[in-house]
What does this fold into?
Amino acid sequence: MFNFQKRSLTNEKGGNTIRWLDTLWVINVMLGEKKPIWAGWNSTIHKDPLPKQKILYMDNITLPPTRLDVVAETMRRSQRVAEECGEKYVAVAYDLAVAKPALQIQTAESPLFDNVFICFGAFHILLAYFGASGHFIDGSGGTHTLIESEVLAEGSATGFITGKHYNRCVRMHEILACAFHSLHIKKFLKQDGDVPDTGKHVQLKERTIARSYEGS
It folds into this structure.
């Protein structure tokens, strides 16, 4: 029996605070501050009041996951989970190679599996996003900048552009985006005049936002 307790958290901070956090991280990096990458930096100032989730695993099916009978069995097991949890519907995230036959089975056997929402895994969705972003980055000089700064190996450039390497692409896109934002801010300061004691203002704002999260 699965014991699911619904939990929700209303984001009262709004988009302005989120944009402030992004800008503060970029400025910190631009000023040469020794700060972690975007996700790690946010985790140091953000306090999550929600309880930790319990992740449970079902018994493994020691057969190829793309076999039609195996895919159908996973859908039936998902329905049983929904029934145990008292839910009418269940959402299942499949790998792309499994999602295709699952959708075919759902259509052919309708309405047997109509209460199963078949979702593509976040892994392939993110890789597709990286591939789309790489289409715009290709030829812009960004890839050459990463290679010349020894952040990206020359042999990995194609994989980065096409979005074939998940972990590598996550880090490279964050670094490249931060570099673009830093150049944008430097251009602004050069045109409109430097802001006095920029580092002090950034650190003060960072501590203020951190305290506001801790008090929420």
In short: The longest strand covers residues 90-94. Residues 76 and 113 are 8 Å apart (CA to CA). Strands lie at 90-94, 116-120. Residues 68-120 form one domain.
